[in-house]
Amino acid sequence: MEAITDNELLGFSRLMMQAAGIMLPSTKKALVSARLSRRLQALGLSSYTDYLTHLQRDGAERQRAIDLLTTNETYFFREPRHFAFLGERILATYDAQRPFRVWSAACSSGEEPYSVAMLLAERLGTRPWEVLASDISTRVLEQARAGVYPMERAEKIPPPYLKRYCLKGVGAHDGHFSIAPVLRERVTFREVNLNTNLPELGAFDLILLRNVMIYFDQPTKRQVCQRLAALLRPGGHLFVGHSESLNGLDCALRMVQPAVYRKDGAS
Fold first, then answer.
1. Range 80-262 has CATH code 3.40.50.150
2. Which residue from 219, 156, 210 is spatially nearest to 21, judged by alpha carbons?
3. Which side of the chain, N or C, has fewer Cβ within a 10 Å radius?
4. Within its chain, how far is the Cα of 92 from the centroid?
5. So where are the chain's domains?
């Protein structure tokens, strides 16, 4: 198999920009090659140019390529300051009768929405709440819906939550744990592309889009931010990654603290 060229990398970068608004700079050449090489072998193709041509006529393979090139690094209770803010600042004062609605807008394999769901279950008691979790990758959504993880992924889950909301695998599932059905049934997963007009999702009290916009160019960041802000209820919050900022994006959200933004108005 021939090594991937700069021109072929540009082709995959254009594919990802068109499909998901994600940039693939020259520094990602090794990553692209590593993630796609097995697909070339499976299809009997000798070059990445041949694979790009194949993607133009095979929609299922195109989705598979997008899945493989989507970065999905995540873990339970990532960025603890966000969970502290949610529990101590948002949920502590929430007393509305309508459901508290959260959208994990790039949920990857599910660790983020399940972490949020554990906190909501603890803090809201019998008050109603909902978690919507979405991603562009159908592959990681399948993993998320299953809610089964290697035991080492449980490291960041607080012990009381682990005991209450997780089940230790036995037999064929030894070395794994699963999210308990009582929690899993409260989280809804669906495929959503943030780089297009959004489907009808309703309004949210909290949206999480963390460590995603660093892969977007400025116009894409602005469009995505404006789409998300439109779905926040007045008084609702948006969490982004701690290395990210909404400066200059004109999306009507005010920074409360680094990586936490609020839509002004009565909640």
1. yes
2. 219
3. N
4. 25
5. 6-69, 80-262
Six-digit token pair at 74? 């995540």
- As a whole number of angstroms, the distance between CA 136 and CA 35 comes to 17
Please state, as a whole number, how many other Cβ atoms lie within 10 Å of the Cβ of residue 18: 10
* pLDDT tens digits, 36-62: 999 999 999 989 999 999 999 998 898
**pLDDT at residue 60, rounded to an integer:** 87
Between the alpha carbon of residue 170 and those of residues 173, 180, 207, 222, the distances in Å are 5, 14, 35, 47
d(CA 230, CA 199): 12
- Under DSSP, the state recorded for 73 is -
Question: How much is the pTM?
Answer: 0.85
Determine the CATH number of domain 6-69: 1.10.155.10
Rounded to the nearest 10 degrees, the angle between the axes of helix 29-43 and helix 48-57 is 70
CA distances from 50 to 6, 39, 56, 139 (A): 15, 11, 10, 23
